[in-house]
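Section 4.2 – Deliverable D4.2 (structural model, holo form)

The reporting period included a commitment to supply a predicted holo structure for the target in complex with adenosine-5'-triphosphate. Inputs used:
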Amino acid sequence: MSDILVVEDESIIRSALKRLLERHQYTVTEAESVTEASQHELNRFDLIITDLRLPGAPGTELIDMAKGIPVLIMTSYASMRSAVDAMKMGAVDYIAKPFDHEEMVRTVGRIVDAQRKQKVRIEGDDTEEGDEHQPHSTLGDLVGSCEAMQRLYRRIKRVAPADVTVLIHGESGTGKELAARAIHQLSPRHDQALVSVNCAAIPESLIESELFGHEKGAFTGATATRQGLVEAAEGGTLFLDEIGELPMEAQARLLRVLQENEVRRVGSVHARTVDVRLIAATHRNLKQLVKEGRFREDLYYRLQVIEVTLPPLRERGQDVIEIAEHLLAKHSRRLKMEHPVVLTKTARKALVKYDWPGNVRELENAIQRSLILCDNGEIGTEELGVDQGDWQIPDTLVNQDTDTPESRAANGSNNTAPDTDELSLEDYFQHFVLEHQDSMSETELAQKLGISRKCLWERRQRLGIPRPKKNANGSTANATQ
Ligand SMILES: Nc1ncnc2c1ncn2[C@@H]1O[C@H](COP(=O)(O)OP(=O)(O)OP(=O)(O)O)[C@@H](O)[C@H]1O
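Output (structure tokens):
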């Protein structure tokens, strides 16, 4: 049986809530204010439900006072703002008054359940209680122990159990998708699906039907009714990477999912109810996009309930070595390396000194490349290429069929990128794209360059060579995006 402390100054609401919870087998203690609540030993409760506005101190004060105990905020000022602020301060969730009884019972059940599971996991791990404040060198697939990563882990653990939308910020390649996965894994939805979608990688014309599904005949080519990815995430989590690239029409449909828990397939007049938690990520400044009229303000406010920020790799100090070694082990296994490969002392220093504009993804490429190029079991600065700017061997080359050490060595000594000394990769990229963009689709171009469609799109943005748009007569014209 779980113990709940209800802090509410309006006695009618307080006793109604008490009765409701007791009917569901919870033990309830009441308090009228933070001061009265603080006379109890807060640590013995499994959950504290508190009104935000109370006589004297606000309910949010209990978040710090009851370290580790989830605090659910009730607010009659159903403004998003105060609820968002409470969540930022560490509240596990919020519920707007007047609340629906069923919703309250469901929310309480979910939090208490998640809390119990977390306790079991912590005890099972043989970790001390108060684990939240123990330093960790990993969380899920994220590796790194610097202070910024510790803060990130703590934040992920706090937001994961609350069923709220999370917006992840961070430069490209910082691990936003891994962070989303960690949130899903630590949430009560962890045994349901996590559906990941990269909004920048799906052609604009297809994105609505991909996400929301379509009815048969909704558009040319819609030969059958199809469920969208939002529906595929039913009961679980939907991760929308690069949400800043979502076209306006799709933004409107997504807003409906968030506001009404409803999805309407393209070409359908009927809405379907969905139960999906959204995690979105972007490397862009969404506020700026809102100002420029390219992102809906209402959607922006819905998304930024809780924000999580991934630090750039250059700000993670010695973590870069920890991550490099982790990636070295991972890719040595993948490439079935016969002998262990290590980083030289100079290489380690160079790793820390280099500023990694492409973050962990760039580091991962450098490690993969080095494993192929090194021949004496040691990786030095030359193999890493950290002194030579940020050129990369395309992934397709790295992932080529390199099953034997001989063929790997051959790939290296063939010098697959002979021009890189004279021609920077960016020049090469620019030439290649300008030369072939009229005759190749974006997918073909990306494939030839060995990069993802999204990466192609990002580089186009960075280098100022926007994708040409096809005119009605089939010729192309550059369009600023
Ligand atoms: N802290 C980390 N420890 C280990 N591997 C990491 C870490 N962060 C990122 N990676 C690896 O780096 C690569 C890029 O990570 P991820 O795709 O999560 O980044 P992202 O921020 O979502 O990038 P983008 O914005 O370009 O989609 C992945 O292969 C991931 O496994």
